[in-house]
């Protein structure tokens, strides 16, 4: 019998993901359940093997990792590829570091990036059509994803991006549900609103700069809603373990992720750059905290003036010592 470590914060993330799962089920049918079953069994089983040797409990965080990882893929992704990715995520991005709370990188993102690089050709054919509970919708799509359309300088209807009427990963389609999930996570203090806003702002500003150079024609709204940018900003970048711990660091961290994602999307061979951007941000998370702490120590307090800063009030000179019998 597998025993789980109770983590209320992780349960709130699962609650936020529930409507997105229901929408994905309507969009793509039983393939969502099949993918979730494979991922959860392999992910929980992998963590149990690690915790069994440590005589510890399986964290409920692995449920969040499995849930986020499942929704990060197109519905027609081969199940064996999903299994390979989640085993890598739990084992190599979490287990080898000592388990929950000790990992440097977001496990779900690490697994996604590993699969994305290893099986790029297979995944390029893994998009299916939407609606009708997924019945008859398992063939390869002839239409391009929004990111591919943007690269080809083809306009993407905003309504399709908002309401999920587009091919893509299972969790990225319904933008409105992701926004509602973000509101819930922020109100319950489960996710940092600073990271979410900084990520979106970093992506939008970088997109405007690139737009001014003529390297791409997509507007910031299209860029932020296309692909997994919003999904990753809300659920992945805000991971409390791999993100910085200081609140001022959240702004730098989020802006770094947003800017990096847009740059990779525009200039690299990969149409989607959010996974690599978050891993890049994870790499510097602790360094950002150290830099912020160092800056705070060097900066003078608001009500404290550096010595000699006021020329009209020079520091008082010490009184001369009195000599015995002096005047």
From TrEMBL:
<feature type="transmembrane region" description="Helical">
    <location>
        <begin position="194"/>
        <end position="212"/>
    </location>
</feature>
<keyword id="KW-0597">Phosphoprotein</keyword>
<keyword id="KW-0288">FMN</keyword>
<keyword id="KW-0472">Membrane</keyword>
<keyword id="KW-0813">Transport</keyword>
<dbReference type="GO" id="GO:0055085">
    <property type="term" value="P:transmembrane transport"/>
</dbReference>
<dbReference type="InterPro" id="IPR004338">
    <property type="entry name" value="NqrB/RnfD"/>
</dbReference>
<feature type="region of interest" description="Disordered">
    <location>
        <begin position="298"/>
        <end position="327"/>
    </location>
</feature>
<dbReference type="Pfam" id="PF03116">
    <property type="entry name" value="NQR2_RnfD_RnfE"/>
</dbReference>
<feature type="transmembrane region" description="Helical">
    <location>
        <begin position="169"/>
        <end position="187"/>
    </location>
</feature>
<dbReference type="GO" id="GO:0005886">
    <property type="term" value="C:plasma membrane"/>
</dbReference>
<protein>
    <submittedName>
        <fullName>NQR2 and RnfD family protein</fullName>
    </submittedName>
</protein>
<keyword id="KW-0285">Flavoprotein</keyword>
<keyword id="KW-0812">Transmembrane</keyword>
<feature type="transmembrane region" description="Helical">
    <location>
        <begin position="218"/>
        <end position="238"/>
    </location>
</feature>
<keyword id="KW-1133">Transmembrane helix</keyword>
<feature type="transmembrane region" description="Helical">
    <location>
        <begin position="109"/>
        <end position="127"/>
    </location>
</feature>
<feature type="transmembrane region" description="Helical">
    <location>
        <begin position="12"/>
        <end position="28"/>
    </location>
</feature>
<keyword id="KW-1278">Translocase</keyword>
<feature type="transmembrane region" description="Helical">
    <location>
        <begin position="250"/>
        <end position="270"/>
    </location>
</feature>
<feature type="transmembrane region" description="Helical">
    <location>
        <begin position="79"/>
        <end position="97"/>
    </location>
</feature>
């Amino acid at each position: 019998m597998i025993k789980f470590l109770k983590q209320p914060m992780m349960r709130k993330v699962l609650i936020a993901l529930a409507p997105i799962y229901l929408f994905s089920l309507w969009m793509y049918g039983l393939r969502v359940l099949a993918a979730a079953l494979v991922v959860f069994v392999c992910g929980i089983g992998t963590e149990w093997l690690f915790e069994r040797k440590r005589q510890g409990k399986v964290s409920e965080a692995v449920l969040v990792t499995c849930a986020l990882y499942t929704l990060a893929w197109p519905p027609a992704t081969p199940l064996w590829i999903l299994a390979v990715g989640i085993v890598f995520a739990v084992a190599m991005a979490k287990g080898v570091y000592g388990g929950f709370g000790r990992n440097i990188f977001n496990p779900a993102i690490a697994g996604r990036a590993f699969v994305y690089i290893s099986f790029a050709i297979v995944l390029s054919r893994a998009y299916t059509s939407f609606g009708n509970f997924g019945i008859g919708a398992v063939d390869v799509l002839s239409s391009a994803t929004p990111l591919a359309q943007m690269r080809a300088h083809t306009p993407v209807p905003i309504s399709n991006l908002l309401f999920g009427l587009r091919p893509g990963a299972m969790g990225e389609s319904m933008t409105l549900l992701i926004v509602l999930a973000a509101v819930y996570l922020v109100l319950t203090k489960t996710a940092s609103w600073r990271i979410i806003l900084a990520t979106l702002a970093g992506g939008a500003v970088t997109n405007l700069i690139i737009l001014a150079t003529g390297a791409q024609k997509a507007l910031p709204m299209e860029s932020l809603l296309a692909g997994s940018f919003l999904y990753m900003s809300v659920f992945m970048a805000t991971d409390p373990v791999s993100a910085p711990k200081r609140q001022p660091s959240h702004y730098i961290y989020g802006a770094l992720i947003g800017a990096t994602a847009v740059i990779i999307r525009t200039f690299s061979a990969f149409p989607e750059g959010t996974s690599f951007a978050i891993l890049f941000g994870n790499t510097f998370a602790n360094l950002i905290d150290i830099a912020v702490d160092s800056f705070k120590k060097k900066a003078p307090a608001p009500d404290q003036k550096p010595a000699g800063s006021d020329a009209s009030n020079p520091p008082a000179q010490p009184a001369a010592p009195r000599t015995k019998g002096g005047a």
